[in-house]
Structures are given as structure tokens and as C-alpha cells.
Structure prediction request, 542 residues.
Amino acid sequence: MLGLMQSQELLISSLIDFAERHHGDAEIVSRRVEGDLHRTTYKDVARRSRQVANALDRLDLAFSDRVATLAWNGYRHLELYFGVSGTGRVLHTLNPRLHPDQVVWIANHAEDQVLCFDLSFLPIIKAVHARCTTIKHYIALCDADALPADTGIPGLQSYEAWMGAQPSTYTWPSFDENSASSMCYTSGTTGNPKAALYSHRSTMLHAFAVALPDSLSLSARECIMPVVPMFHVNAWGLPYAAAMTGAKMVFPGPAMDGKSIYELIEAEGVLCAAGVPTIWQMMLTHMEANGLRFNTLKRTVIGGSACPPAMISTFNEKYGVEVIHAWGMTEMSPLGTSCILKSKHLAMSAQEQMKVRLKQGRGIFGVDMKIVDAEGKELPWDGKAYGDLLVKGPWIISDYFKGEGGSPLVDGWFPTGDVATIDPDGYMQITDRSKDVIKSGGEWISSIDVENIAMAHPAVAMAACIGMKHPKWDERPIVAVVKKPGAEVTREELIAFYEGKTAKWQIPDDVVFVDAIPLGATGKMMKTRLRDVLKDYKLPSA
Prediction:
């Protein structure tokens, strides 16, 4: 017997319709490429999204055709989020931090038909457009009078002229909720990037999960700042969840330095901000150097890579900001876990609470997890056993676009490539990426643990631990360190800093001071590049 409930497809267009009807006056604030601060509302975003839909229809695009963006976080990008997917086309957010050759490969592989881009990325477009064989239309996200002359890009139009001439009335089509809505390519650290193809259904369910109180806790009373780029896994789903809840959004645009982020948080009364550790490190360095405090910020969501304990302590103890450690992947839409304390943790000491906060957190409803050994045998949730982390759920990938790389699943589970433990309360902690774990004398050393201790030193701005070949122990850890501006610390002082904080055999054999640690297109440390930089390095004990 079936239930007697109405059936309605879960479609992204319903989000912007809801935001317009119930939260039409809620603000969307954007720092633009033009340099000014732009203000609009959900009502205006909804109206202009419908104009985008009309403009796309007039380009004669087929259902599920890909429309690419190369853009910062801002209101025009938000309009494309809804206008493209709402018509049944697929939003493809290209990462401008990639090498131009990678941009070309990805655009051709996706078979993009349209490319909408911010003018700050015009040099990239000039470099790649002749090699992007499927793109027929180029739209610059600017006013008509800001469109440069003689760009050499055939048929280039300004966004405002392209969509502004269209009517603002539009009836969103109804179609199967399992239809593709957007696509994001992995960072491609090994081989060519592969695309995760999200559906309307998966995106809507993910938005519900993002907004939950034990997740990122969004509501109409919130002012949130997605610092995580909209070209990085759809800004962790925040644009969709914000529309679902009516939260005010503040977009930083191209100004991603610590000073600009801090000033925008203060000026707009941001309560919650989300981004990767490298962004927050820049902001905290700026605040410390200038004796600044927060007046409105209450919590920050940190993901993309493990958050150093020193950063959590600084936010919590010095600035009174709660850190929500979150974890996920492109293949997971991306949210998988968030680290929110349970009521039984509230009576614990700050030191005991910190042990919990350092974990990546509990799986949110919709995400199932398990850890397995090398033979695929499931391991216990005791907080001690560690193994390969596998996940499954309704917003987790089943196959890559065009079947690249073959089926990624193992008996219906997606292998994340992480090594983790899970405690009896369900809190998962990543001990390393499987490719980065250091095997020394038959034992595993977590590179994350080594990095976290170095990051707690007041002179260290960034640290990356890698394993180096050793004739006796197979591998031994070294730590590459970037010092804070004006700070000094010696190799011997840093090695001594590890004493008493970890087992002696886990203390790195050496410290290598570098000017910078290579970062990938999503802000993560690129240890493969670091290993290339240090390929001629020899361990002092080897």
C-alpha cells in the first residue's frame, strides 16, 4: 500500500521561488570585481534568475546542456546557480585557479556550450577560447559599458545586456528530480580530473542536511559568508541552503585576503563564515598584527583540510568564536560530517572538549560511514582502530561523468582515500590521506598529527609533513615550515617543541624551512609538489 501524499519533484527552482515569496527582502551583499559593494535581495535574485532562464532558452540549448562559469562569489554567479539549473541545463563551475591547459581539457570534456566569466578572468579566456571546441557563447559578467573592446573573443556579450533585455516572467519547467543539476571536477592530483554530476534531488537533500542545527545551523536570523568559492563544490551547498532558510548572504568576491575578509565580516554583521584553514590563517594573522576583535562573528565552519588545534584554540579562546570542523569531498556534494558537541560533552573541561573538536565529526543524517582493514573487513567504532574510510548516501557519487576511471564503488560504498578512526559516539577522525600516511618501522605516523604540533608553535605560519625514504625504517617524517612574518625559530627549537607532545619515534627527523608550501586549486597543501621540490633532500640520519 502506498502513502496518500502529494508527489512533487525536488527541483532547485523551488528554492529561489521560496526565498522570493517568504524572504524576498533578505539581503545579498557582494564585493564585486569592479571594487564596489553591491546590495540586492532574494526578490531581485529571483527576478533576474528568470531573466537568465529566458536568455538561455533563446540560445537554443538542449535539456542537460552544460553552462560553465568562471567566476568569484557574487550575486551574478548566484543568479546563474538558479537560472541555469532551473531550466534543466547543467551548471558547471570551472576553477579559475587551474592551469589554462586543465581548463581547456575540462571544458572540452564537459562539452560546455556557454561560458560566463568575471572580467578578472579575461586573460584566461583569451588564452583558452580558441582551444575550447564546444563553447559557442561567451558572456562577461559585467555591465554593457564595461565590456572591453577588441578582446578577440567572437560574439562576446555582457551579462547585463544579454539577460537584461529578457522578460522577468518565466514558468520553471517540471522534470525528473534525478536530472543532472550541476557538475564539479575533482582536483585531479593523479591523472585527469573526473566530474561529479549532482542531481536536483541530491542537491535538495544536501541543502536540507547543511541547514540542520547539528550541521551548519542556518536560519532566517543568520548572516552567513561563504568564503569557500562557489567554484569549489558549489560553495559547500551554502547558496542552496541559504535560499532554503532565507539567510542573508555576504559574498567576498575576489578580495580573499585576510584584511578584506575581516572588514567585510565586521561591516555586514556576519554571524557565520565558512572556508578553508589557509583563508582563516591569513585573517587571524591580520587580526593579531593589528589588535583586532570580532563584534558579530559567532562561529566559523572550517573544512577542505584538517583544522590545526592552534587555530581552533585561537578562535575559541581568544576571539570567542565556535569552530565547526566539517569534512566532505567533491564526490559527496560535499558535506559528510560536522563536529558539534553532544550535551554530555558540555560538562567536560575545555581540554577534554578539544579532543572532540579536533575530530572531523559525526556523520549527518543521509551519510553512512565505515572503516575497513586491508582485506575489506569492517573495523569497530572504538576510537582506536583505524582503517580506510568508506561512505554511502543519497548525495554521494555512484559513477563519474562519462564513466571515467570505471566504477568508483566497492560493494556499494565509495572509498574516500582517507584513513580514519570512529569513536563509540560516531565521531570520525581522519588520521591521514592513504597516500600521505608515513610508514616507519612497520608503524604508521599521521602526517596531520605532526603538522598540528608544528602549527601550535607561535613562530609557525604553515607546516606540511611528508615521509622521506630511510634505509632502516622505510620512511621517516620531516616537516616543511613557513615562518610567520618577522618570527624566528631554529630547527633545534622546533624539534625540541615536539618533546612530550608525541611519541619519540613520531618526532620528525628534520625541519626544512621554505618560503611557501605549494597549494592546490582548492587551497589544500599539494604534498606531491612539495615532494618534487624536496626530491634531492637527504635525511640527516639516512
